[in-house]
From TrEMBL:
<dbReference type="GO" id="GO:0003987">
    <property type="term" value="F:acetate-CoA ligase activity"/>
</dbReference>
<dbReference type="GO" id="GO:0043955">
    <property type="term" value="F:3-hydroxypropionyl-CoA synthetase activity"/>
</dbReference>
<dbReference type="Pfam" id="PF16177">
    <property type="entry name" value="ACAS_N"/>
</dbReference>
<feature type="domain" description="AMP-dependent synthetase/ligase">
    <location>
        <begin position="86"/>
        <end position="481"/>
    </location>
</feature>
<protein>
    <recommendedName>
        <fullName>Acetate--CoA ligase</fullName>
        <ecNumber>6.2.1.1</ecNumber>
    </recommendedName>
</protein>
<keyword id="KW-0547">Nucleotide-binding</keyword>
<dbReference type="InterPro" id="IPR000873">
    <property type="entry name" value="AMP-dep_synth/lig_dom"/>
</dbReference>
<comment type="function">
    <text>Plays a role in the autotrophic CO(2) fixation pathway. Activates 3-hydroxypropionate to its CoA ester. Can also activate propionate, and to a lesser extent acrylate, acetate and butyrate.</text>
</comment>
<keyword id="KW-0436">Ligase</keyword>
<dbReference type="InterPro" id="IPR032387">
    <property type="entry name" value="ACAS_N"/>
</dbReference>
<dbReference type="GO" id="GO:0016208">
    <property type="term" value="F:AMP binding"/>
</dbReference>
<dbReference type="InterPro" id="IPR011904">
    <property type="entry name" value="Ac_CoA_lig"/>
</dbReference>
<comment type="similarity">
    <text>Belongs to the ATP-dependent AMP-binding enzyme family.</text>
</comment>
<dbReference type="GO" id="GO:0043427">
    <property type="term" value="P:carbon fixation by 3-hydroxypropionate cycle"/>
</dbReference>
<keyword id="KW-0067">ATP-binding</keyword>
<dbReference type="InterPro" id="IPR042099">
    <property type="entry name" value="ANL_N_sf"/>
</dbReference>
<feature type="domain" description="AMP-binding enzyme C-terminal">
    <location>
        <begin position="542"/>
        <end position="620"/>
    </location>
</feature>
């Protein structure tokens, strides 16, 4: 059994932002308001949905006749491209900048910055939609693939497809040919859009070559459109491949394509999950519910306003980019930054210079990025002016209280809201977070905060019963929410099995969590990444967090390995902070440190020092890969792995230990 003493998190530390614009309420008051929102049932969401422009209003708010295939706003007709582009281009925001795009800088500073207004975006989206429709005959019911670097054409193609009711699937431009082929085949895409190449860390990623290889094993792709980005020579297959600029030159400048009236529950896109825990799942999102959740969270979590410059540092290839680069901010008529390349190339402060150069006011980034910045050291931040930033959130993994404090101090100047929004590809948008744009509760370092209004989150034990406060268990969502998946593409059984079978009628998330007495949730990592040391359940993340609190540690991955006495013990792989020398007594010191800070049940077989950790291409630690190497079992599907050398690094560390 787990008890309160074993959880060492700052449950009682409450921090309020110093900016007067946020209405800070007590957690108790928030709980009451939250309870009232749930009492209204699905109808709660109607007033949010009504703020979108529907072509035809819905007849039924929630159709729950065929669970778990819930449908939101049934009978309603809507278009995501219309909501994001037309509304603003035809209104007072038409000359407002929608996208500030920055290409990857070369050694002597940024060369390329492009700004697109809402009117520019509207024109481009219409011209591309015209092309897709007239030249390629795509329409409702079709699927297309997008494999592009972070250039303006990426959101433009997504919005053009949405305009036609064509479901699209974006493949992150760092993926290999196999991953592209798998996704195109699974999605049955007819057309694939790519670029000749993309810039990353000063090198060209040969996207078109990768596509050529992928297309050797795809069945449905008939045409390829190629955006010229790097200008390198590429092979163009006659009858199949064409350059975008060539075909687009024949499309009239003022081409207009009527946005398709799509049904609220029609698919908008298919997106494959990050693959952290196994084979990626093709999550299908609809339009009406999804856009409703984005509208709510852009306001509540990000407090988005017209004067803001919004920057989400994720890649559009992940759900974070879909929701909070493309559909969310543009629907709100925001000005946002889109950047190509890497946050720390050519210098560790590329990202801070972007904040400074474009006066970013709302910043959305990830723990993996923050821990990397920690590794480089604070001097890279303090040499820039980050005073434009007024609100921040992190996403993707739990944020260690230590990393939270570091970033809150250096960038947040201990005065602005800074949260960790919990959600996943499947949820479509943020579900658990502090909401500085509506009712803000005090912050706590590392927490996710309470669920947003209208969302019923809870923590269950193995029997499917809610656990007491400050006890660990499984995170669940007890009621349908707008933005939930329609299904897993071509595999509805897997959808039922993965999410709705462990606790029938309740959405099983697969994360391990604890709820404190103030109703704040603390996501502790994956439910299957839990160690059982002498019968105590410890999230690997909890031990990683304890390690990171040590001033010498920048990043850590902990996995469980079998132990004859205790069942399991921990094995840690640690990246040290810049400038730390490996003293012989450091390992012992770290073990002692963790036992003092976390508890004596933290038993390690060994702590290894490494330079890299296996991560997904979205930057998450792939503990299942570390564990497989450490226990000598099959590593399984590693198409999401960023750098194969990281696996070797783990292997080497283990061999040296033996
Ligand atoms: P796969 O499902 O293929 O294994 P994945 O779960 O990494 O991959 P995503 O949908 O990109 O794919 O990530 C969602 C997961 O990320 C959540 O289940 C959770 O574990 C983690 N996560 C996201 N945001 C947070 C956060 N703010 N705090 C803690 N964990 C988070
Ligand atoms: Mg997942």
């Amino acid at each position: 059994m787990t008890t309160q003493e074993e959880i060492n998190l700052p449950f009682n530390e409450m921090i309020e932002p110093k900016l007067l614009r946020h209405r800070v309420v007590s957690p108790q008051l928030y709980s009451e308001i939250h309870k009232r929102s749930l009492d209204q049932g699905p109808q709660f969401w109607e007033s949010v949905a009504r703020e979108l422009d529907w072509f035809k209003p819905w007849e039924k708010t929630l159709d729950d006749s065929n669970p778990p295939f819930y449908k939101w706003f049934v009978g309603g007709e809507v278009n995501a491209s219309y909501l994001t582009v037309d509304r603003h281009a035809n209104g007072w925001r038409r000359n407002k900048v929608a996208l500030i795009w920055e290409g990857e800088p070369w050694s002597d500073g940024p060369k390329e910055v492009k700004k697109l207004t809402y009117l520019d975006l509207y024109r481009e989206v219409n011209r591309v939609a015209y092309l897709l429709k007239e030249e390629y005959g795509l329409g409702k019911g079709d699927t297309m693939g997008i494999y592009l670097p972070m250039i303006p054409e990426l959101p433009i193609f997504m919005l053009a497809a949405a305009r036609l009711g064509v479901a699209f699937t974006v493949v992150f431009s760092g993926f290999s040919a196999q991953a592209v082929a798998d996704r195109m085949n699974d999605a049955e895409a007819k057309l694939l859009v790519t670029a000749d190449g993309g810039w990353r860390r000063g090198k060209v990623v040969p996207l078109k070559d990768i596509v050529d290889k992928a297309l050797e094993s795809t069945k449905t792709i008939r045409n390829v459109l190629v955006v010229r980005r790097t200008g390198q020579e590429v092979r163009m297959e006659k009858g199949r491949d064409r350059y975008l600029h060539e075909v687009l030159s024949k499309v009239p400048q003022n081409a207009y394509v009527e946005p398709e009236r799509v049904k609220s529950e029609d698919p908008l896109y298919i997106l494959y999950t990050s693959g952290t825990t196994g084979k990626p799942k093709g999550i299908v999102h609809g339009v009406g519910g999804y856009m409703t959740l984005l509208h709510a969270t852009m306001k509540w979590a990000f407090d988005i306003r017209d004067e803001d410059v919004f920057w989400c540092t994720a890649d559009i290839g992940w759900v974070t980019g879909h929701s909070y680069i493309v559909f969310g901010p543009l629907m709100e008529g925001a000005t946002e930054v889109l950047y190509e390349g890497a946050l720390d190339y050519p210098e560790p402060d590329r990202w801070v210079s972007i904040v400074e150069r474009h006066n970013v006011s709302v910043l959305y980034t990830s723990p993996t990025a923050i821990r990397t910045f920690m590794k480089y050291g604070e001097q890279w931040i303090t040499k820039h002016d980050v005073s434009s930033v007024r609100l921040m959130h992190s996403v993707g993994e739990p944020i260690n209280p230590e990393a939270w404090r570091w970033f809150f101090k250096l960038v947040g100047k201990e005065r602005i809201p800074f949260g960790s929004t919990w959600w996943m590809t499947e949820t479509g948008g943020i579900l658990i977070t502090i909401t500085p744009g509506s009712y803000m509760v005090p912050m706590k370092p590392g927490t996710n905060g309470p669920p947003i209004l209208g969302v019923a989150a809870n923590v269950y034990n193995d029997e499917g019963k809610p656990v007491p406060e400050e006890t660990k268990g499984y995170l669940v969502i007890e009621r349908p929410w707008p933005g939930m998946p329609l299904t897993i593409h071509r595999d509805p059984e897997r959808y039922v099995k993965v999410y709705w079978s462990k606790f029938p009628g309740t959405f099983y998330v697969g994360d391990y969590a604890v709820k404190d007495k103030d109703g704040y949730f603390w996501i502790l990592g994956r439910a299957d990444e839990v160690l059982k040391i002498a019968g105590h359940r410890i999230g690997t993340y909890e031990l990683e967090s304890a390690l990171i609190q040590h001033p010498a540690v920048a990043e850590a991955a902990v996995v469980g390995v079998p132990d004859p006495v205790r069942g399991e013990v921990a094995e840690a792989f640690v990246i040290l902070r810049g400038g730390t020398s490996v003293r012989p007594e450091l390992k012992e010191e770290l073990v002692k440190f963790v036992r003092e800070n976390y508890g004596p049940i933290a038993v390690f077989r060994e702590i290894h020092f490494v330079n890299k950790l296996p991560k997904t291409r979205s930057g998450k630690i792939m503990r299942r890969v570390v564990r497989a190497v450490a226990t000598g079992s099959e590593v399984g599907d590693i198409t999401s792995l960023e750098d194969e050398a990281s696996v070797e690094e783990i292997r080497k560390a283990l061999q040296e230990f033996k």
